[in-house]
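We treat protein structure as text, and this decision shapes the records that our systems exchange. The remainder of this section carries one protein's record, kept here as part of the documentation:
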Amino acid sequence: MARRPPRPHRPGRAEAPRRRQVVIVAAESAPGAASLVQSAAESTTHLAQSAAGSTTHLAQSAAGSGTTGLVHSAAESGATSLVQSVDWLAIAPPVVVAAVALAVLVADLFVPAARKPLLGYGAVAGLVAALALLIPLHDGDRSTFCLTTGTRACSYTADHFTLVIQALVLGGALLTALLSIGDTRKLPAGEFWFLLLSSAAGAALLPAARDLATLVVALEVASLPAFALVGIKRGDRRSSEAALKFFLSSVVATAVMLLGVSFVYAATGTLHLTEIAARLDDVPGQLSTLAQAGVALTLVGFAFKTAAAPFHFWVPDTYVGAPLPIAAYLSVVGKAVGFSGLILVTVVAFPSYADVWGPALAVLAALTMTVGNVAALRQSATRARSAVRLLAWSSVAQAGYLLVPIAAAAYAGDRQIGSTVAYALMYAVVNLGAFAVAALVARTHPGNRIADYRGLYATRPLAALAMGFFLLCLAGLPPGIIGLFAKVTVFSSAVDAGLGWLAVVMAVNVVIALYYYLQWTAALFRSPAQDGTEQQGPVTRHRTPAPLTVAIVLTAVAGIALSGAPQTVLRFAGVNLF
C-alpha cells in the first residue's frame, strides 16, 4: 500500500513530530528471525536485572543516609498544614441542638399523632443537654477552625462573651419550647420543633463566629427558620402578613449587609475579624472609600436585625401575627442574635472606625428608645392584641437601652460591652416571663387586650403577682431591683463615655416608660367593674399546661434571685469579655 505524502508545514504552528515507523518482519520471509528474537529477549532480561540491582542499591543507600526519614517528615508536615484538628467540645452546644433538630424531623415521620407532644419534650431535652455542655467551657479559652499558616486567626472562639450569649440564647429557646408544648396542637409539630431548634442552633453559633462568612451564615441560619415560624399558622391571614413583612425586611437587611461585607473583604483581603481590625488601619488610599462604605453598610444591615429605629417597622405586626411563644422568642433570642453580631463587627472588627460608628449608634440609641416608648404610650387598652403590641413596642425601646453601652465602647473601650450583656440577661428573664403570663391569659381571652388583665389578681393571684414583678423590672422600680441596677449600669456607661446628652435622653425615656408599665401593673389588681368596662371574650377557666406553669415559675424565680443578688449579672459590666 502506498504511503501518503507528509502534510506541508503551516507557518505559526509547531512542526508535528514524525510518526514512529513500525516494521513487521514475517518469520517465514526473514531467515534467521528466530535467532534474532531470542537474542533480543536475552538482552532485555539482562537489562531488567541490571536496572533492578541498581534500584535496590540506590534504595539501600537512601535509607542509610536518612532520606526515608526526610520523606516521612515532609509528608507529616504537609498533612499538618492541610488537616485541622477540631475541638468538638467547643462546638458541642450548637452541634447538639442541630443534631436534635434533625432527629426530631425524622422522628416526626414515625410518631403517631397522639404522641406528637413527645417531640416537644425531646426538643426540651436537647436544649437542656446543650446548656449542660456549656459548663465544661466555663474557662472561655477555646478556639477551633484556626489558620495554620501566618497569624493565628480562628473562625470559632468560645470565650466568655460567647458562653454568656450562648447561655442566654439556649435558655431563651428552652423557655420558648416550654411555652410552645401546650400551644402547638393546631400547628405541624415536626416542622415547628425542627424550625425552632434550627434557629436556636444558628443563634448559638453566631456569638462564637470570628470571621464575616461564619457570622453571616449563622445569622441567616437563625433568621430563615424564624420566617417560617412566624407564618406557621396555616390559613391565618395575620400570620401570613407578619411573615411576609418580616421576610422582606430581613432580606433587605441581609442584602445590604452582604454588600458591606464584600466591600470590607475587597479592601482588606481577609474575612477574619481580628485580621480586618489590623488591616483597616493601613488601607491604601485608593481603597479607603470602599472600606468606609463597607463599614457603613455592614452597620446598617445589623441595625435592621436589632430593630433599631428607623429600621423597626416590622416589629409590631410581626409580634402580633406570630404565635405567642415565637413572639417571645424573637423579642429575646432574635434581639440577642442581632446585638451580639453588632458587637462583634464594631468592637472586634471595626475599632479603627470608632469615630464613625460611635456617634451613629448613639443617635440610633436615642431615636430607638424614644420611638419605642412613645408608640407604647399610645396603645389603647381595648384594642385587640394590645398587650402583645405594647410588649413589642417596649422591646423596641429596650433595644435603644441596649445600644447605649455599644456606643459608649467607641469612647471608653470595649469594657463597656459588659453593660449591654448584663442588661440583656435581665431583659431576657423578665420579658420571657411577661410573655409567659400573656400566653396564660390568652388561653381564656384570645383577644389578649390590656383590658383583659384587669382583675387578674382575683382569678389568678400568683400569675398577677408574677406579671406585676416582671413589669416593674422592665420599668426599673423596686422590687424589681435587677431592672433598676441594669438601667443604672447602662446610664453610668453613657456618663463614663462622655455622652451626657444620651444619658439625659435615656432618663427622660425611663420616665415615659414608667407610665404605661405602672398603668398595666395597676390594672392587674383592680376590679373589672371598677373601670366600667366589660370583659372581652369568654371567661371560662382552662387547665394550665404544666410546661407553661414551669416557664412562669422559672422566670419568676430567676428574676427574684437576680433581684436579691444583682451582682450575679452585673459583674459582667466590670470585666472584659473578649
In short: The chain has 21 helices and two strands.
